[in-house]
Write a structure and sequence with these properties.
alpha/beta; eight-stranded parallel sheet; 17 strands; globular; disordered C terminus; binds N-(iminomethyl)-L-glutamic acid; binds fe (iii) ion
Length: about 425
């Protein structure tokens, strides 16, 4: 080793899941813990980590360009949010009172509100307005310890407006230090112009939108809201198979409200992940386990919709040995929060997951839900130097002391971009000038 760009010292406790592949069932509890640790970084990647003593002896005679001392804090891999609806116009606080008085999510949508309200605001917004709003949200996520975010389209529901959303996500990925992974979700709702003609809208998605999105390289994944009154199993299958034929990997909003069979479909077509799953049947979970589909659970959404029902995380982990991942589902309707730490608390409270399972779900399993298990999601030699540094003595403290942000600092690709709870400089929020590995 000739040189270290950044040596992170003073790590009171380093906790990480091991390896690159999804951690299934009981493995989710097995995290590595090192007290009094250091991490050595070169060209944006981790080149060594371990106890301070081990790392120091490894680095004898090596030039160290910069050293930071994190003051005995807790360090984990940068958190990963694998399910968000990041780019959109407007907000929907006007629906709050209606929602709290008991009008259901699907009834609001059927009345032309909900997702369709955000479609109007998103179509009306300029690309710059969408960019500025999403950038603010991304900074909020970053300040929470998140270093990679998935972003779905699905508030355009026309060729031009879907491409506009995806172009904004692409520009954010190029200019913001966080990595943004794009998903095409033209099948998020049936637009008003196609009311009563869902099949014609599916034709448009299959014949025009998916080929164009794939041709322009604007998305890696394709997602569908497979739900009673939105897109049926047959329509979802048709859309996802077309996406796969065009090189887009399948994700699916499955069995959120009704047990339609979305989990079974995810298994059948080999989707990388299935999301929500509150109503998934045992048969559906077994199909997912058989075909290696990652369940992405969104406890903030069931919480905010006031549902008594929760995803069956314990059965997924204990009975089906699935590799559960967690995400915010950040969106203006069912879950308007950027806070992955709130999600961690809700995963403890309502999904009964342990702190170790929660960390695994927010790191290596989330990375694998985005097809990036080899690059991010654990502290390992050769991986990107993405680290979250918390003002917390141990892992359990994160979901325990709730309602506050524990993140003290964030390192992304070896650059310190949050320190002392603030963005380091405005410049730090641009990718240009950062060492890319
Ligand atoms: O994942 N379920 C469908 N889509 C989003 C909600 C989008 C919205 O309400 O604007 C979700 O919860
Ligand atoms: Fe969603």
């Amino acid at each position: 080793m000739e040189r270290i760009d950044l040596l992170v010292t003073g790590i009171g406790r380093l906790v990480t899941p091991p390896g690159n592949v999804p951690r299934c069932g009981q493995q989710m509890r097995e995290v590595h813990e090192i007290m009094d640790a250091m991490v050595a970084i070169r060209a944006g990647k981790i080149v060594a980590f371990g106890t301070a003593q081990d790392v120091i002896s490894l680095l004898a005679n090596v030039e160290i360009v910069e050293t930071i001392d994190v003051g005995g804090r807790l360090v984990t891999p940068g958190l990963i949010d694998p399910h968000t609806h990041l780019v959109h116009g407007g907000s929907r606080e006007h629906e709050l009172v209606m929602k709290r008085s008991g009008v259901s999510y699907l009834d609001i949508l059927a009345q032309g509100g909900g997702i369709l309200n955000t479609v109007q605001s998103t179509r009306a917004a300029s690309e710059q307005e969408l960019y500025d709003k999403a950038r603010g949200s991304l900074n909020g996520m970053l300040l929470n310890g998140v270093t990679t975010v998935e972003a779905k389209s699905g508030y355009g529901l026309s060729l031009e407006a879907e491409l506009k959303q995806l172009r904004v996500a692409k520009r954010l990925n190029e200019t913001h230090p966080l990595d943004i992974v794009s998903t095409f979700m033209g099948a998020h709702a049936v637009p008003l112009a196609y009311k009563g003609r869902a099949e014609a809208y599916v034709d448009l998605i299959v014949n025009e939108l998916i080929p164009k999105v794939a041709e322009e390289g604007l998305a890696e994944f394709c997602d569908v809201f497979c739900e009673q009154g939105v897109f049926s199993i047959e329509q979802s299958r048709r859309i996802l198979l077309k996406g796969m034929a065009c090189g887009l990997i399948s994700k699916i909003h499955a069995d959120e409200i009704e047990p339609l069979g979305g989990a079974e479909l995810a298994g059948e077509i080999g989707a990388i992940s299935a999301e929500h799953l509150l109503a998934a049947t045992d048969k559906g979970l077994a199909a997912m386990a058989e075909h290696g589909v990652i369940p992405v659970l969104l406890p903030g959404t069931s919480f905010n919709l006031g549902l008594a029902k929760h995803a069956r995380a314990r059965a997924m982990i204990d009975t089906y040995a699935l590799p559960v991942a967690l995400a915010t589902d950040y969106n203006p309707g069912s879950c308007p929060t950027e806070s992955i730490q709130l999600i961690m608390m809700l995963a403890s409270l309502n999904l009964k997951m342990t702190p170790e399972e929660i960390l695994t779900a927010c790191t290596i399993n989330a990375a694998n839900a985005l097809g990036r298990g080899g690059e991010i999601g654990s502290i390992a030699v050769g991986k990107r130097a993405d680290l979250a540094i918390f003002d917390a003595p141990n892992l359990a403290y994160l979901p325990y002391h709730f309602g506050i942000n524990h993140t003290f600092a964030v390192i992304k690709n070896g650059n310190v971009i949050v320190w002392n709870r603030a963005l380091v400089t405005d410049e730090a929020c641009k990718k240009e000038g950062h060492d890319e590995p």
